Amino acid sequence: MPQCKQPPDSEPALRMFAMPKDANANGDVFGGWVISQMDLAGAVPAVERAGGRIATVAINAMRFHQPIAIGDLVTCYAKIESTGTTSISVKIETWARRHASAHQVKVTEGTFVYVAIDETGGKRVLPPGD
Length: 130
Description:
Elements: E1 14-17, H1 31-50, E2 54-64, E3 73-83, E4 87-97, E5 104-116
């Protein structure tokens, strides 16, 4: 799969440093931590589009390209790919700026699906939108 050379030209949904508590025994960041951060990032445009509460219902695609190291600045970019009657599909790219350098690499990408929910946790129809 061809790698993008530059991060998306859009505002990041989430930025954070990879910390020692997020690492496995090999010194790389746990994949589960990365997925958690991506889920939070994807929720940003999903909540805005839903106009309220959402829940994550699926990860339709997920690919790890490179490991993330302690000290990397991790940035997630999230963009709505499609919407249904109650669901929102969000493409998320995660990039890492390697510790103490300006070099950035795409480390993961995935498509997360969220559903709009009401006060009781049941599905609700999305409001009219783009």
